[in-house]
Amino acid sequence: MPNRSVFYVSDGTGITAETFGNSILAQFAAKPRHVRRPFIDTPDKAFQVVREINETALREGKRPIVFVTLVNTEIRDIVVNANAMVMDMFRTFVEPLEAELGIKSNHRIGRFSDASKSQEYDDRIEAINFSLMHDDGQSSKNLADAEVILVGVSRSGKTPTSLYLAMQHGIKAANYPLIPEDFDRGALPSGLAPHRKKCFGLTIAPERLAQIRHERRPNSKYSAIENCRFEVAAAEQMMRREGIAWLSSTTKSIEEIATTILRDIRPDRLVY
Amino acid sequence: MPNRSVFYVSDGTGITAETFGNSILAQFAAKPRHVRRPFIDTPDKAFQVVREINETALREGKRPIVFVTLVNTEIRDIVVNANAMVMDMFRTFVEPLEAELGIKSNHRIGRFSDASKSQEYDDRIEAINFSLMHDDGQSSKNLADAEVILVGVSRSGKTPTSLYLAMQHGIKAANYPLIPEDFDRGALPSGLAPHRKKCFGLTIAPERLAQIRHERRPNSKYSAIENCRFEVAAAEQMMRREGIAWLSSTTKSIEEIATTILRDIRPDRLVY
Fold first, then answer.
1. Nearest to B75 by CA among B91, B56, B62, B60
2. Number of neighbours of residue A170 by Cβ within 10 angstroms
3. Superkingdom, according to UniProt (chains A, B) (predicted)?
4. How many CB pairs under 8 A join A and B?
5. Can you tell me whether residue A1 is helix, strand or coil?
6. Chain B contact present for A133, CB below 8 A
7. Which end of chain A, N or C, is less packed with Cβ atoms under 10 Å?
8. DSSP element (H, E) containing A225
9. Which residues of A touch B126 (CB under 8 A)?
């Protein structure tokens, strides 16, 4: 599909339209051109987008695919008249849901409008700051406030996972490295001992770990396969002994790791 | 809607189902109970979810709303028979798209499968590491590799925005504070001067800034409203003089800020 364009048209950021569209397009072995048109919130802007879509259809000889999240019906009616295959999540799902719930949708513009004023949003920002402050065992202060503490050897995926949990789910996620000194002592870092129940482990295949570490410090003891094998085995042994649940990050994305952790820790405010 | 449940049922992480469902539910003034059921990838698990949905319907006296992203038709057929209003994005959108494109969908399971092996995923992880290393002006090393450098006074929203750009879009986003010493000197921090074209400014209403800083350091000069007014005015004057585009983060979420920045910087690999 080299000569085919996909448009994301929204009166907000277009993030919902794009996530929605990507999840559908991921089902196809095709790489269409992506065109984002956020903040389309006046008829003038809508007509301009329609012109652009129609010109694209002519140029490519195929009508574009258009994912829309437009709450305002006047603007939506303009866009759906473009020479395109329009996928409209609001009309398809929101309107039937109104009937089911017996209430009218409030037709808010965009899921993030006024987000910056909500408690949920403030919690997310606070969680990001918390996770940054407690990245890589930087601080054991306020660890009691952590909802989860990721542990594992250096470069097992703790940092991006902590930040993802904070950013997407507002979870205060600290992370703490397990280092050779801990293995020599045969005990968790002392700052962690009181919080063992909140710990969740990440492990990784030694071969993959060596590869990742090699990019950072080539030809070092740190990245040597024998050392990676030793650290991973020692960390798994310690987690097993301490009764810490863990998973392997080797073939998992941070989204998949985070989902598994959430299922395990079941934070009170996220009903599972 | 206190006695109403919403289920997210997926054979992957359920992130797509949840984003999709949230964007639809955001249109309603209602707070249903959320129940996530990821990794439903066998008929047994599907039957178990159906039992749970049916029991919920009985208990609440209202059939639940169920958002599904199930690629496997055998599993999907089991779940759609639950006593529920089922919203199925694949059947509704993927199948018509097959007809439009004239190709079959590859029925991949989940948008993130094999994500951990893709170049795009590696770029995201690298961008997160880059943004962390270049948070708060920590390092001017490799600033040439940054795709955008956010500048602004302390607590104007630079850090969460940089991390969001990295995590969601794989953008190498550095951030650099503008501090009183810069205003006294009347010049950008020297490390930034060669990269002025990549700078993007964040500003914020002084009242909001004082409030945020107050939570951190109450009753300090740092959080005093007069000082916040001075710093914001001086930062805006500097950005104006240096020709740096900027926006106000006061009432914007990080998603909205990031979308605006992307539209402005138009990174080569994201077609706009």
1. B91
2. 23
3. Bacteria
4. 190
5. coil
6. no
7. C
8. helix A225-242
9. none
CATH number of B117-265: 3.40.50
pLDDT in tens, B188-246: 998 898 999 999 999 999 999 999 999 889 999 999 999 999 999 999 999 999 999 99
Pick from A90, A115, A259: which is nearest to B253 by CB? A115
Two tokens at A82? 């473009």
Structure tokens at A252: 């998992």
Torsion of CA A28, A30, A33, A37, to 10 degrees: 0
Backbone angles phi, psi at A23, to 5 degrees: -65, -30
B152 annotated as belonging to a binding site for a ligand: yes
Residue numbers in A near B213 (CB within 8 A): none
Residue B56: closest CA among B48, B25, A262, B39: B48
Rounded Cα gap, residues B147 and B262, in angstroms: 10
Residues B82-138 have pLDDT tens digits of: 999 999 877 888 888 888 988 877 655 444 445 556 777 888 999 999 999 999 998
Average pLDDT over residues B170-189: 94
User: Residues of A annotated in the binding site for ADP, as ranges?
Assistant: 152-159
Note whether A58 and A82 are within 8 A (CB). Answer: no
Query: What residue spans define the domains of chain A?
Result: 5-101, 117-265
- Chain A nearest-CA distance from B56, in A, is 13
ipTM of the modeled complex: 0.76
Paired strand residues for A175: A150
Q: Are B203 and B152 in contact (CB under 8 A)?
A: yes
Provide the chain B residues 68-107 that lie in CB contact (below 8 A) with chain A. 69, 71, 85, 87, 89-90, 92-94, 96-97, 100-101, 103, 105-107
Regions of chain A short of the pLDDT cut 70? 1-2, 106-117, 266-272
